[in-house]
Amino acid sequence: MKKTANVIVIIIFISIIFGIYILAQNEKVRNENKMAETNINVKEKKNEKAKDFVLKDLNDKEIKLSDYKGKKVFITFWTTWCSSCKVQLPYINEVAKEQNEDLEIITISSRRI
User: Is the pTM above the cut of 0.70?
Assistant: First the structure.
């Protein structure tokens, strides 16, 4: 009787772990789908200069786009209430890690966007 109870407990435990795994995979797929929905086809515009702008960073220090002259710059806008924006952040972090010093990433967050 005790063996049967132990087997049942083990089966329940394995079922719970498997269920958690399936839920996690579903969440990952949902996030990837959200990311795909928010992708925008952007054509590279060579030799076209972006207009300079000035913003303050988290330490209240002014940064200008022109500070990054000669570098590749990826700029993204997001807000804390935008779920698809939050989904993008881990992917942006992955790109940042892969590019190392070849790419500067500027994320701009505002409640007013």
Answer: no
Contact 75, 111 (CB under 8 A): no
Q: What is the pLDDT of residues 66-89, one digit of tens each?
A: 998 888 888 888 887 777 777 888
CA distance 113 to 108: 10
DSSP state of 81: T
Q: Same structural domain for residues 93 and 71?
A: yes
CATH of the domain at 75: 3.40.30.10
Q: Which amino acid is at 43?
A: K
**Residues 2 and 26 occupy one common structural domain:** yes
Where in the sequence is the domain holding 8, given as residue range(s)?
A: 1-39
User: Do 35 and 63 lie in a common domain?
Assistant: no
b/e string for 45-69 if b means 16 or more Cβ within 10 A? eeeeeeeeeeeeeeeeeeeebeeee
Residue 38's pLDDT is 55
Please tell me the distance from the alpha carbon of residue 76 to that of residue 73, in angstroms, as a whole number.
Answer: 10
